[in-house]
Amino acid sequence: MIEAAVLEINTGLFDGGFKLVPALTLTVMLALFLGVGWFFRVAAVDDMWVAGRSIGAIENGMAIAANWMSVAAYLGVASTVALLGYFGLAYVVGWTAGYFILLIFLAAQFRRFGKYTAPDFVGDRYYSDLGRAIAASTTLLIAFVYIIAQGNGLGLMAQYIFGVSYEVGVILLMAITIGYVALSGMLGATKNMALQYVILIGAFLLGLYATGWTQGWSTVVPFVEYGEQATAMAEIERQYTEPFQDAGYYHWIALCVSLIAGTCGLPHVLVRFYTADNERNARWATVWGLLFTLFLFLGTTAYAAFGSLLYQDNVGEYTEMTGTESDTLVVLTAYLANLPEWLVGIVAAGAIAAGLATTAGLFISASSAAAHDIYTNLYKEDATAREQLIVGRSTILGLGVIVTYLALNPPALIAEVVGMSFALAGTVLFPVFFLGLWWEDATREGAIAGMFVGLFFGFGSILNEILPQYVAALSGEAIFPTFAMIVPATSSSLVGVPAVMLTIIVVSMVTDDPPEDVKRLVRQCHSPEPMETMQSAEDVATDGGQPTDE
Question: What is the SS3 string spanning 390-415?
Answer without folding.
Answer: HHHHHHHHHHHHHHHHHHCCCCCCHH
